[in-house]
């Protein structure tokens, strides 16, 4: 009994460490003195054979303890081509979520609860941003309380000279400002936006990671609603109100427009839109915040993407199909610099990494059966095998769920057409092409209905060119001019309705008629002569994309499983 007790003294300290219940300074200070004391007690009180046996057991215990103590000394593997900037303290890796805790159903489980979310890391991917980077860091440091702002991570994507040198030369000396915790990571070669974001995201230490373009200015209290939204749902990605940056003041432009919402097209691109819902189908990519643990659980970004573009589509689908959601924070305003003719907004970098088909990777990884109707060529499925592990872990749903979740946009807004047709002018027998009349038949332009009818909330209030993202828009002497569809039906220029009596009405008062030389023109509907301005659909066909959707919906039965699921 005495031998058991003296052996359990150091053994209990070791178990305390392994379990994580004792901090390292406690078990390090207690284990060795207690072990020596236990051995001395056994020598004094026991027989020689007994204490020699006890010594062998104790040596085994010490060996195990040494392994445990040395384990934290194994270096953390750095992100390829990323290193810590000069004079910056070491970077700590993100705590990984244990597999047993992460895989219990759709979206996995999060260890952190919403109430524990208090701090933000701002990640700035910067390639030759120079003065913009300094001013962006300064704005975030000055407009974020120090107890909220964990750090600003400047990911220098191959700038020459390195950005850290510019910060050292700048009079603000933000790199030495104790109220501005700025850390520098660097890629020696410019690899592109996704790699820079991934480097910063993996090394961020805040409860929330805000990925912000390196030419932005937050407004006062920008962080408040973002934190509130993530606390409400730690699987939530949050997009701030994106406003316009005045380059003269490096602040929000007076009377700025506000953007936040985008949708995914079938050519694997994104288009801006707006509606009454705060849920966002697709992020633009430049400004978004999310919980660090959720970022880690979903894998962050596709490591196979290089260059610019596509990561926003991938990240959006990771959210909606794998247990998360995306919302906007209307009161969190961040001004963003748009690329214009102003030389101060020009890019100064050239990506040197091997280019990749990022949109094709999105199609291959996420579209599933909808690949056959995608208008962007997918890469081979073998190229996106890196998605398999986290999709399995999080029990991600198929692409049809995303379409069904935003069915008002896709079905009522005409992004996914139910049918396509040619529109024939009755008197001439010619069909409406992009701008004028032409022959009907195979290979000619096909149209579809598009844009929500705001009076009914259903399809449709306009005409969309099938297989494109453009709708009939303004009208002049040369005819109709296509423009990016306003899928929610707010653009009055895109109001084209085929009435039951065959008239094609634009707006409230005008109708389209055949003109001279295959042109079309507008005429007040009240002035039409009998038989004038009549149109009809011909060669009406159910679209292939709708056939795929109907088939997948019948298989997955989202309408039965989620009868109360919002449609926008």
TrEMBL record:
Leader sequence segment: 1-16
Membrane-spanning segments: 30-47, 54-74
Gene Ontology annotations of biological process type: protein O-linked glycosylation
GO function terms (MF aspect): polypeptide N-acetylgalactosaminyltransferase activity
Entry keyword set: Disulfide bond, Membrane, Signal, Transmembrane, Transmembrane helix
A GO cellular component entry from the record: Golgi apparatus
Residues covered by the Glycosyltransferase 2-like domain: 121-287
Keyword Transmembrane helix carried by entry: yes
PROSITE patterns in the record: PROKAR_LIPOPROTEIN, RICIN_B_LECTIN
InterPro entries cross-referenced by the UniProt entry: Glyco_trans_2-like (IPR001173), Nucleotide-diphossugar_trans (IPR029044)
Domain of life, source organism: Eukaryota
PANTHER family xrefs: N-ACETYLGALACTOSAMINYLTRANSFERASE, POLYPEPTIDE N-ACETYLGALACTOSAMINYLTRANSFERASE 1
Protein name listed in UniProt: Glycosyltransferase 2-like domain-containing protein
């Amino acid at each position: 009994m005495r031998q058991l007790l003296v052996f359990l003294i150091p053994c209990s300290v070791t178990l305390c460490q392994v379990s994580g219940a004792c901090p390292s300074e406690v078990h390090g200070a207690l284990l060795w003195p207690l072990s020596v004391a236990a051995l001395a007690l056994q020598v004094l009180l026991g027989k020689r054979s007994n204490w020699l046996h006890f010594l062998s057991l104790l040596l085994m215990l010490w060996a195990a303890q040494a392994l445990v103590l040395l384990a934290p000394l194994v270096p953390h593997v750095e992100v390829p081509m990323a290193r810590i900037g000069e004079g910056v303290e070491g970077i700590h890796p993100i705590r990984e979520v244990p597999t047993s805790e992460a895989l219990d159903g759709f979206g996995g489980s999060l260890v952190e609860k919403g109430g524990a979310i208090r701090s933000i890391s701002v990640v700035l991917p910067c390639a030759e941003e120079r003065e913009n980077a300094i001013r962006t860091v300064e704005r975030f440091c000055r407009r974020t309380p120090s107890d909220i702002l964990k750090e600003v991570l400047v990911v220098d994507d191959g700038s020459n000279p390195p950005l850290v040198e510019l910060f050292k030369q700048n009079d603000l000396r933000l790199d030495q400002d104790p109220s501005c915790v700025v850390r520098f990571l660097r890629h020696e070669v410019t690899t592109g936006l996704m790699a820079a974001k991934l480097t910063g995201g993996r090394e961020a230490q805040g409860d929330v990671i805000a990925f912000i373009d390196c030419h932005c200015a937050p407004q006062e209290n920008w962080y408040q609603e973002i934190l509130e939204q993530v606390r409400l749902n730690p699987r939530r990605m949050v997009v701030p109100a994106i406003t316009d940056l005045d380059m003269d003041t490096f602040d929000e432009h007076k009377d700025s427009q506000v953007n936040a919402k985008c949708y995914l097209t079938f050519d694997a691109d994104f288009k801006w839109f707006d509606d009454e819902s705060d849920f966002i189908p697709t992020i633009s990519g430049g400004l978004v915040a999310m919980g660090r643990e959720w970022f880690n659980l979903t894998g962050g970004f596709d490591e196979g993407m290089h260059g610019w573009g596509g990561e926003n589509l991938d990240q959006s689908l990771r959210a909606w199909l794998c247990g998360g959601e995306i919302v906007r924070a209307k009161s969190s305003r961040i001004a963003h610099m748009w690329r214009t003719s102003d030389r101060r907004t020009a890019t100064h970098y050239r990506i040197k990494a091997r280019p990749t088909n990022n949109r094709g990777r999105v199609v291959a990884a996420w579209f599933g059966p909808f690949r056959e109707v995608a208008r962007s060529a997918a890469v081979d499925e073998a190229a996106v095998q890196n998605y398999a592990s986290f999709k399995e872990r999080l029990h991600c749903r198929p692409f049809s769920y995303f379409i069904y979740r935003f069915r008002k946009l896709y079905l009522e807004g005409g992004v996914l057409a139910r049918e396509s047709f040619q529109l024939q002018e009755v008197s001439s027998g010619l069909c409406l092409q992009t701008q004028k009349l032409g022959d009907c038949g195979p290979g000619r332009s096909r149209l579809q209905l598009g844009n929500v009818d705001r009076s009914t909330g259903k399809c449709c209030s306009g005409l969309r060119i099938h297989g494109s993202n453009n709708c009939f828009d303004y009208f002049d002497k040369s005819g109709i001019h296509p423009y990016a569809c306003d899928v929610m039906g707010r653009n009055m220029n895109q109001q084209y309705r085929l009435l039951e009596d065959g008239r094609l009405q634009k707006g409230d008062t005008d109708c389209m008629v055949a003109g001279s030389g295959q042109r079309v023109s507008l005429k007040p509907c009240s002035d039409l002569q009998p038989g004038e301005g009549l149109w009809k659909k011909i060669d009406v066909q159910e679209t292939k994309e709708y056939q795929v959707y109907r088939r997948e919906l019948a298989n997955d039965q989202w309408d039965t499983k989620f009868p109360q699921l919002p449609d926008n």
